[in-house]
Structure formats: C-alpha cells, structure tokens
Write a structure and sequence with these properties.
Elements (H helix, E strand, L loop, with lengths): L20 H4 L18 E6 L10 H15 L2 E6 L7 H13 L5 E4 L4 H10 L5 E4 L11 E6 L1 H15 L4 E8 L2 H17 L4 E2 L3 E4 L10 H13 L4 E5 L4 H10 L3 E6 L15 E7 L1 H14 L5 E5 L6 E3 L10 H13 L8
Parallel strand pairs: 1-2, 1-3, 3-4, 4-5, 5-12, 6-7, 6-8, 6-9, 9-10, 10-11
Antiparallel strand pairs: 11-13
Helix pairs in contact: 2-9, 3-4, 5-6, 5-10, 7-8
Length: about 350
C-alpha cells in the first residue's frame, strides 16, 4: 500500500441507524461539517454501507477499516448507516440526505449501487463533498463528487494465473455474487490470467449466485455453499469467488473438501470466520477499498479534495494479491512478472 500502513480487518457488527419519514422528510441546511461555535473545524464523516454492512468480512469491512483508520489518524467524527436488502434507490437517497442534512461532510456511499443516488443528492447539497466507492462504469459528475474505481480485472488476472499454476486437476472455477458488469471484470481478468499461465487449463462456466435486482448473492453464504459444491462436483480444485459475504460459504465448502479457494477484496486468510479452513486459501485478490476511503477523508480534511474519478490499479497498489499462508511463494516471481507486464502495458487485461 502506498502509505506503508497495513489495515487488519476485524468483523464487527455495526448498529444500524433506523430511517424514518420524519428523519428524511425535510431538507436541512447544509452545514458543511462545521462544529458550530468552535473555532476549530471538526470533520464529520457520514458513511452509508452497501448490502451486508459492517461485518460482511469482505467489501464493506474494507471500507469500514479505511474509516476506522481515518478516525484514528485524523480529527473526525463518524456515523454509519447500513443498507437494506433489495431496497429502491429512493432509500439510498434518503440515507445520503439524512447524513448530509445532519451536517456530515464528507458523505460516502459504499458500492456501485449508490452512484446515481450520490450524484443526485450531491446537487442538493453543493457544499458537501461526496464519495461513491466503486463508481458505476467509473463515471461520476458534479464539482463536489469523487468516484473511486478499481481495476479488479488486473488483480484477478494475477490470481487467475495462480489458480492455473497451482491446479492439479487442470480444472478451475469462478463464482460471482450478482450478475452485474462490475463482477464481470473479476471473471474476465481471472480467466485471462489462467489462460496466460496455462493455455490448457479448463475453466468451468462461471456461476453467478443471483440476478439483479436480487442482491442476495453478495450476502447469503448458503448460496455460495451450494455453488461451490456444484463446481467441486465438476472437478474444479481451485475456485475464485467474487461474492462478498456470500463468498464465506464458498471458502468454507471448498476448504472442507480440501481443495484450494481464492478470496476477494480483503486478505481473507486472516478472517476468524474461516480460520478452520485457512490452509486451503491459496491467495486473495486484494482490493484496497480501505485506501480509497482513507484517501478521500484525508483530502477533505486537508482541503485538497478534487472532484472526478480516481483509479486504483496495480500501478498504485490499489489492487493486488495476498501471500498469507505461503501458498504462492514458489510462483511469486511469475506473478510479479505478470504484474510488471500489466503495469507497463505489455499485457492488456480484458474487462468483459
């Protein structure tokens, strides 16, 4: 990571803030995050989680870790709100308005599903800075909006190469949480990396747990469990999941079968929930959502905020792979050579 700090994700159940009609009905004055009559400005950061919230042991927990780090390092106060399953965009807008109306500045929406809502609410609160993590199609608009986007396909290429090089059966698999363009990037990179490392590798047809608007595929471990059983039955001995909280089911099932699994978003080797099978976690595709949250809060705190999109890729260590457990130590030189070729442009990784 660029600052040299390392954040350990801890699974914590956050208290959800109940939204009521009275809380969201009227627009309040945009305070800009001022601490009232105090001479010193206290930055009040509001964060709205994606489905699964704090404690999902994946994507949301990475965002939470970035917020926790910012709270530790900077003079800020925070408030968090969790999303509800299958909620309409109006609920996301209400959540963002609630935070902005209470004087939180900046406000963060975690997940691509917040993109349209952030852009809309930001127009109503022009003095409040907004971040959307995983900006949909890496596009945002507005002088007070930043979009953090990631080259998931690049990190997935590296773990795909690892899967092919480590597979003994010659068959590997991929399980995506929800069938959306963002997760297609994980699949595309993974398959490209596997084929680059071993052209003869057999890649099973990708399995997606749910179709939108059903987003259970990002939070229901039972769905991951069943999908993993299906790919194991077809001979896969390495399976990569990009399924958020549902991926915990994938990890446990694959590990119980004594086959190799690849985690996502955080270094999942270190998660307490999968400690009994961690020896079967080959690697994880690490996506530094934590860094994007920290960078944004720090920029607002220091007055260096810049609107527009900010890309996190292999070149700035925004994505990568983990080496915990030592399972990829013997192929690290090959993976790092692929990384160098991607950064230089010699290898162009597909996104579809």
């Amino acid at each position: 990571m660029r600052r040299g700090y390392k954040i350990s994700l801890v699974s914590v159940t956050g208290a959800a803030l109940a939204l009521s009609a009275s809380a969201c009905g009227g627009k309040k004055a945009d305070t800009g995050g001022s601490s009232g009559g105090d001479s010193k400005k206290v930055v009040k950061v509001g964060l709205a989680f994606d489905i699964g919230g704090r404690g999902d042991q994946s994507f949301n927990d990475s965002a939470a870790a970035g917020l926790d780090k910012a709270k530790q390092d900077l003079d800020i106060k925070t408030e968090e709100i969790s999303a509800k399953p299958d909620e309409p965009d109006a609920d996301k807008e209400a959540r963002l308005k609630l935070l902005a109306g209470k004087g939180y500045n900046p406000v963060i929406g975690v997940g691509f599903a917040y993109t349209a809502s952030v852009i809309k609410v930001a127009k109503a609160y022009p003095n409040t800075k907004f971040l959307v993590v995983d900006a949909d199609q890496c596009k945002v608009e507005g002088a007070n909006v930043e979009g953090a986007c990631f080259s998931e396909e690049q990190g997935s290429f590296l773990v795909g190469a690892a899967a092919a090089l480590k597979s003994k059966s010659g068959t590997i698999g991929f399980i995506g949480g929800v069938n959306v363009p963002l997760i297609h990037k994980f699949q595309a990179g993974y398959e490209a990396g596997a084929k680059a490392a071993k052209p003869s590798i057999k890649i099973l047809p990708a399995k997606y747990l749910t179709e939108p608007p059903n987003f259970d595929g990002f939070k229901n471990p039972a769905l991951g469990n069943e999908a993993a059983k299906g790919q194991l039955d077809k001979g896969a001995d390495v399976i990569y999941h990009a399924a958020g909280g549902a991926g915990i089911g994938v990890i446990k099932t694959v590990g119980a079968a004594k086959k190799m699994v690849i985690g996502v978003d955080s270094d999942q080797y270190n998660l307490p929930a999968v400690s009994t099978v961690k020896d079967y976690i080959l690697t994880s595709m690490v996506k530094h959502v934590d860094v994007s949250v920290y960078d944004f809060v720090e920029a607002v705190s220091k007055g260096t905020f810049q609107a527009g999109t900010k890309k996190y890729d292999l070149a700035n260590d925004g994505v990568g792979y983990s080496a915990s457990g030592g399972k990829v130590d013997d192929i690290k030189a090959k993976l790092d050579a692929y990384k160098a070729d991607i950064i230089s442009g010699k290898i162009q990784v597909p996104t579809k």
